[in-house]
């Protein structure tokens, strides 16, 4: 049996027909990439970790023992949220091949663990004002940073969507832009305030005069070490910028670009905006996703609870 591979059905077939896991992952991700190219990148990371823990062998040779081994390993290395996310990926992978009548581990044996909800830290209006007060507008780089923070606060846009903005997408007459939602690929409109528009026009006047740079169509460009202007600004650069400003502002809690997205949703909630409006602004297909952004933290709950109690007493 040296040149044979053993299937779960106990049938023996030539080894050449037993394609190893690495190739099965590639085939699966090619299909996944046809409708969710961004997700396929993350899927590869977790599927290859599964393969590293359990070994690269024919798909048909993985059994429940392999999954248990992987589950024990990932439980000891990652948070509950990552464990849940990776379990979904493994389950979807085996379902993909099971649906094609492959004799492999049934996805019904892969149970999704409960996950502690992620903490959704929202920037407050007070924190937002404290942060922008630290950013001067007398230099182009600082003006760029000020505009970025204002747009994050005004629109609830994802930082990756903001960095993807091109000059041609800006509608100056309506203070808006049509962007492509990162997770779904659907188009949606974002809009900003008159104050933010003032800084945008001030920024654009300088941006359009910059010498030719890589990704010349990009609204926001980065800076090289020699202080010359270069390619499109990256989300990581925005994260570092905000981290530095939060530290300078003396804010102890962690604030990221995504915190402004939560801040946008919380502010609209407090303004009694309809859920459908918040859902559309955030670019969610499923309204259930929007509920996460509308949840109250402890401080918000106490503030509102005391207000209700006062109203009732009067």
Features:
314 residues; mainly alpha; three-stranded antiparallel β-sheet; two-stranded antiparallel ribbon; 13 helices; 7 strands
Task: Give your account of this protein's structure.
The chain is mainly alpha-helical and about 325 residues long. Helices cover about 50% and strands about 10% of the residues. It is built from 13 helices and 7 strands. Helix 11 packs across helix 12 (about 285-295). The model is unreliable at about 1-20 (pLDDT under 50).
Protein topology:
Elements: E1 4-6, E2 12-14, H1 21-32, H2 37-54, H3 64-75, H4 80-98, H5 125-132, H6 140-155, H7 159-163, E3 170-171, E4 176-180, E5 187-191, H8 194-207, E6 221-223, E7 229-232, H9 235-248, H10 257-270, H11 275-282, H12 287-294, H13 298-313
Antiparallel strand pairs: 1-2, 3-4, 4-5, 6-7
Helix pairs in contact: 1-2, 2-4, 6-8, 6-10, 11-12
TL;DR?
This protein has 314 residues and is mainly α.
Task: Evaluate the radius of gyration.
Answer: 25 Å
Shape: globular
- Give the class from helix and strand content and strand pairing: mainly alpha
Order of secondary-structure elements: EEHHHHHHHEEEHEEHHHHH
**Helix fraction bin:** 40-55%
- Specify the number of helices: 13
Distance between the termini: 86 Å
Major sheet: arrangement of strands: 3-4-5
Question: The biggest beta sheet, please?
Answer: 3 strands, antiparallel
Q: Please state the average pLDDT score.
A: 84
The stretches of 5 or more residues where confidence is low (pLDDT under 50) are 1-18
Tell me the strand percentage band.
5-15%
Give the total of beta strands.
7
């Amino acid at each position: 049996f040296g040149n044979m591979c053993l299937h779960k059905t106990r049938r023996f077939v030539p080894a050449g027909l037993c394609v190893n896991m690495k190739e099965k992952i590639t085939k699966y991700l090619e299909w996944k990439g046809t409708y969710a190219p961004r997700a396929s990148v993350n899927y590869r990371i977790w599927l290859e970790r599964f393969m590293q823990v359990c070994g690269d062998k024919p798909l048909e040779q993985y059994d429940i023992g392999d999954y248990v081994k992987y589950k024990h390993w990932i439980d000891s290395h990652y948070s509950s949220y990552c464990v849940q996310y990776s379990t979904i990926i493994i389950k979807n992978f085996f379902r993909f091949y099971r649906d094609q009548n492959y004799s492999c581990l049934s996805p019904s044996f892969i149970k999704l663990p409960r996950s502690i909800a992620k903490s959704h830290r929202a920037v407050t209006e007070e924190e937002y004002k404290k942060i922008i007060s630290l950013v001067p507008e007398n230099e182009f780089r600082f003006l760029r940073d000020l505009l970025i923070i204002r747009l994050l606060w005004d629109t609830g846009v994802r930082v990756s969507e903001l960095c993807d903005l091109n000059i041609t997408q800006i509608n100056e007459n309506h203070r808006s832009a049509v962007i492509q939602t990162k997770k779904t690929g659907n188009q949606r409109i974002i809009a900003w305030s008159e104050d933010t528009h003032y800084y945008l026009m001030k920024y654009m006047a300088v941006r359009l005069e910059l010498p030719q740079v890589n990704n010349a169509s990009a609204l926001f460009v980065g800076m090289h070490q020699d202080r010359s202007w270069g390619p499109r600004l990256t989300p990581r650069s925005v994260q570092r910028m905000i981290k530095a400003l939060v530290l300078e502002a003396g804010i102890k809690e962690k604030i990221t670009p995504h915190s402004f997205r939560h801040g946008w949703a919380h502010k609209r909630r407090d303004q009694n905006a309809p859920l459908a409006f918040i859902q559309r602004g955030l670019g969610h297909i499923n309204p259930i996703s929007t509920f996460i952004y509308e949840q109250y933290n402890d401080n918000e709950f106490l503030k509102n609870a005391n207000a209700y109690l006062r109203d009732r007493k009067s």
